[in-house]
Amino acid sequence: MQLTLATWNINSVRLRMPIVEKFLLAHQPDVLCLQETKCTNDQFPAEPLNALGYVHQAINGQKGYHGVAIVSKVPLESIDRRDHGNVGHARHVSATFVAGAKTIRLHNFYVPAGGDEPNREINPKFAHKLDYVEEMKSLHSGAEPGISSILVGDLNIAPLEHDVWSHKQLLKIVSHTPVETDGLKEVIARGDWLDLMRQHAPEPEKLYTWWSYRAADWAAADKGRRLDHVWSSPDLGPHLSSIEILKDARGWEKPSDHVPVIARLQF
DNA sequence: ATGGTTGAGGTTCAA
Q1: Could you point out which of A84, A117, A127, A149 has its C-alpha 20 to 30 Å from the C-alpha of A180?
Q2: Which nucleotide's C1' sits nearest to the alpha carbon of A216?
Q3: What is the pLDDT of residues A128-138, one digit of tens each?
C-alpha cells in the first residue's frame, strides 16, 4: 500500500478552504497536517473536510493565533496535545495510525517564529523559540516501543546552507542563525530522526517551502527558505518513495506564504 | 534608512 502524507502551514484555514479543497482533490493525500489554522476548535471547518473524506480529525486550536490539525482518511488513535513551556499556545498535536505492518505516531508541530532579533537576552520570543527546540530535542523517534514515528510541520528553521536563498546573507536572520540551525542539525546527525526531504533531495539542491509575502514578485526574486520539514524514525527511511514540494501553490489565488510538502511512503 | 505584506480581531500583535 502507498501512504501519502502532506504538511502545509495554511495561515488561516477558514480563509484558505478554497485552496485546501483544490489541493485535496488534486493530490488526494491520505493524511494532511495543517499549521497556523488561526481558529478555535469550534470554528474549525470540520464539515467541509468530512465531506472530502477526511473524517478523522485531531485538532488543537486557539483564538486568532497558531493552531494545528491533522485530518485523515485513515483512522487516528491516541490523540495527544503538548504545550511546550506551558505558555498556552496550540502548537502541537499528535496521533497514531496504521500503515501496512507499521503503527506510526505522527507529530504535527508549529514552532514559534521567534521575532526579529536573534538574541535571547533582549527578545523573549527568540528565547521561547530556542527553549521550544530544546524541548523537541528530548522527543525521541523510538519513544514508544513498537511504534514508528513521523514528525512534520513548520519548524520555522532552515537548518542547511541550501535551505535558504543566501546562506551568508541570512546568518543573522532569525530562522537561519547558528544557534537555531545547530539544534536541528544535531538531532539529525545523531540519527534519532531522518530528514526525509534531504534523503530524497540531498544538498546542494536548493529546497524552499516558504516565500515571504513582502516580496514584490516572490517568483522572480525566489528568495525562499525551507521552514517546513518531514522527519521519520530510521526504520521508515527505506519506505520513502518520493517527496514533492508543491511550489505552484504559492501562486494560487489568496495563497499561504508556505506551500504543501507531500511525502509518499510504500508499505 | 529598517523597508515590504498578510491575517485576526479589534484600533495592534504576530508572523
Answers
A1: A149
A2: B4
A3: 999 999 999 99
